[in-house]
Amino acid sequence: MTPGGAMADEDVFDVVVVGAGPVGENVAGRVVRGGLTVAVVEERLAGGECAYYACVPSKALLRPMELAAEVNRMPGLELRGPIDAPAVLARRDQTVSHLDDRGQVSWIEDLPATFVRGRGRLAGPLRVEVAGPDGTRSLRARHAVVIATGSDPLIPDVPGLPEARPWTNREATSVQQVPKRLVVIGGGPVACEMAQALHSLGAHETTMLVRGDRLLTRVEPFAGELLAASLRESGIDVRFGRSVTEIRRPAPDGPVTVHTDDGASVEADEVLLATGRRPAVRGIGLDTAGLAADGPIEVDASMRATGAPWLYAVGDVNGRSLLTHMGKYQARVCGDVIVARAFGAPDDRPDLRDTADDRGAPQVIFTDPQICAVGRTESQARADGFTVRAVEYDMGAVEGAYLRAENYTGRAKMVLDEDRRVLLGVTFAGPGVADLLHGATIAVAGEVPLDRLWHAVPAFPTVSEIWLRLLEEYGL
User: Fold this and answer.
1) What is the pLDDT of residues 296-349, one digit of tens each?
2) Is 351 helix (H, G, I), strand (E, B) or coil?
3) Is 468 helix (H, G, I), strand (E, B) or coil?
4) For residue 355, which of 380, 387, 320, 385 has the smallest C-alpha distance?
5) CA distance linking residue 185 with residue 270, whole number of Å
6) CA torsion angle for 339, 341, 345, 350 (degrees, to 10)?
7) Domains of the chain (ranges plus CATH)?
8) DSSP reduced 3-state for 140
9) Contacts of 30 (CB under 8 A, 6+ apart)
10) Total-model pTM
11) Which part of the chain is the FAD/NAD(P)-binding domain (predicted)?
12) What is the C-alpha to C-alpha distance for residues 55 and 328, in angstroms, rounded to an integer?
């Protein structure tokens, strides 16, 4: 043992971060900025799921579809001919750096931080063992270990599923040959986005099998209804109330048949599973910290794990919010609070606690129409005991929206706490509404009083005039 308590063959850092996705990278950046040393461990690609198989490539596939829809809504600019799928896929490959993470590794090393390639596993308090290509490397942290390993697709237990080799988001976003017939199982954001993207790129027979009675169950019902209508109008077969009972693919490269509980079946070239995600923590040694091996890792508002004061968990692994931007927000909180505690500085400042998750995370679903929301839905607000009033408005009746397209279809809703006269949640559904979300996020997070919000004047003629119409509908 060395005088500091480390074993002679250990590499010692102030902080060890396990996971080099955007969340882990943000922790490392904040820790280095605060004057601490850090090692970042990654088994797969530095940059994480978001950069290579989720947020970035999916939006690269969705953007041409969005533009095509926008053009077709404007008289005189109708799109002539199909979208050039090979060109779209080539652009997608550029956005993910052709699955080459050398640039991302260089970014980490330039922080500066030490990048360690391999699978990290907790080996007791403040210790991480990394099984890499050159053997096992032992790391010790002086102050904290941070778990930022993200999440993996949730694979349901369905007869014949493993043999059918279904797609997850990874195969869907990295597709090189778009199947002509596609079955999508699920009705959440990934299912909706990828069904629409792949359908526009050549999956002409796309069927969505949704177990529940609507899409996007975590947002206001009207948003899912508008999206379902758009999907069906484009030719996608959306079937509600269908549970998959069996999947068969007799030949490895042959068609796959999906059977549902109503006795029907659908034949396709590929099946995409989009039925949820689970924390990617299996086999990383949580039991050595006295925690449940399968997660999620329970944390307090500073991202410190319950029962293990040296361990922190950020992003999908803590189960608070499975959104990249919220994981990055948690990472900033986490990195800064670790620095404060390391130097004995006050660690109870407001910026050193996660409060955004409690109010409701902002989210955009990049379908056509786009769906975006922040804060609580009306049903959530009522369940939480607030005195609630909800106001809705037809976005197509706003002058700025009408100028974008004569058949602009959209809707907006705000949920209010009547006792305090502040917003609890806002939802927009319509073409291009994502640009409205941050204003709503500021209003919700800042608890801006309605009487003050009334004086935030929207520019004419823009879609942001929806704020004026909603407030007028409320009675201001």
Assistant:
1) 999 999 999 999 999 999 999 999 999 999 999 999 999 999 999 999 999 999
2) helix
3) helix
4) 320
5) 11
6) 80
7) 11-47+101-152+279-356 (3.50.50.60), 161-275 (3.50.50.60), 369-474 (3.30.390.30)
8) strand
9) 331, 332, 334, 335, 336, 339
10) 0.94
11) 13-326
12) 14
